[in-house]
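Researcher: I'd like a structural prediction for the single chain below. Treat it as a standalone chain; there are no partners to consider.
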Amino acid sequence: MPGGSEGAEDPPAEDDEVIIEEIETNTAGADEGVAASSAEATTAQDKSAQEVEDGDGGDEQRPDSSQDKEMLRIEKEKENMSAVEKLERSLLWKAEGNDFFKKNEIFKAVDAYYHAILYCRDLMQNPQYYPNLKHTPENRKLAQDLCESVFTNLALCQTKYAGTLPADHAEKTKVLEEAIKSASEALKINAKNVKALYRRALARSSFAKMAKNAEAQALLGEAKGDLLAAIAEDAQNRDARAELKSVQERLKTLKREEIAGERRNFSFGSSLSALATKEEDLLGDGSVRKRISVQGDSGRWLNEDWLAPDAVIKCVVHAKCTMLSYGGDEGQDVKHSAPPVTISFILGDSDMHEGFHVAVKSMTISQVASFTFSPQRLKADGGLARLLPDAQGKTSIWEVTLVKYVTWTDVHRNGEQLQKIQDEGYGKFPEPLSEVFLHWRVFGPDGGLIHSSRYTVSVGGEGAGGLKHVEDDDKEAPCYVLGENTWEPLTLLCKSLRQGGVGELRMRRLPPLPKQEEGGDSNADVSAKLSMMMNKTKGIEELRHCTVRAELERVVQPLAGP
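Model: Treating it as a single chain, here is the predicted structure.
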């Protein structure tokens, strides 16, 4: 057999068939096999190594199950195998598992996948730190790809098998837990694995059907996060979109049931105690204190994975913030009468005060609460923080409403450019030098419109020389030559849009607005200058944390050469 590199790097065609294979099995007496295999595969290397090391310690150290004996046998066999031979053996077991799966022999398939992992998982270690394995970086990459694929298939086997068990079956919960673990192992190797994200979501969704309301909402919230991540990687994934819709509907139903239960248990005494809500110390040091004014929807929305600096999915929260007072030990000395500020920011963004990150993470959607912030929690000096009233370095009290949250794809995984495609459109993607006809708008972090390609300048406005902007819905979309005179944010969006597509790009720092637009519209230059003048009157010196929304109306591909 060849060295195994082609099979590991480019999985065999059977994988695609396995993905959609439906399993119907009534095999008795083997329930624990599916649940156990993934967990064993996850810990096999450490466990086997320890048993080999302690093998001479007497009868009590010897393996007492067929699984332990098989793991020891494999570890002993691997001592005399090269890295390429381990990969080849692993590929053979994987192929055998695929064959068993298609024959509906699910337990044999799981056992084969388990063997595939045992033979190659140690090769995922860094060759630089594990020279005794005598493998190369190429071997390591092939082993990672192989284990990722096998763990994903294990999750499929376990989820499908769990679906054949009745809800009250003793093993159903255990099998679903192992399905979640298997998919999670695949995602540790590749966080963008759409199939693993989808299968983990299915397992969590199935698990939620057997859980009580609160736990079910938590599981469905996690499933929703997985599905959103899968759709961010594959926007056209119909299965993920359909499952997301189902999960959202179930969350709404559970929430209605929760509210109905609370109403049934409501009493006059409880209503009196609710009038005096307790203050909550969110960090335990008194620096961020919360008192709820209006309850929100109580649904779980935060996914901790969004907070990782290099996460592919980032969360942008929209909140309304009002500073009520500041000064003194309790922040009540000076009353503040400025209007509320509506603002949006990425969770974890250092441009926003730490206190507000802590605040919104503690809230539910539509919740209104007052927060008392110590000065050390309001030290950010970025463009976002400067949009809020200045607490003068003193303790302050704020009223915060969590309006909504939106997930975006982080293009470079550094928070500089976030992208969201609402509608990809149809036809071919525009090639370089294509003529693209598109309308676009720029929105500030407060959601206010900064500039629009539909703007026309008219006389009679307040300030800026008596000029004002008016959007003309009948105005033709400006034409740009992609790669020649297209504004940078529009160029980036056009790479992901086709004719009729709509998308948004949120940038930490937006380039200056374009001046002269194609087609000789001299009004565009005046319009762009007017927009910047009006922004400066609002204290906005540069465009930061803004969102560009583009609507690609028409694409004319460049003519082919002779």
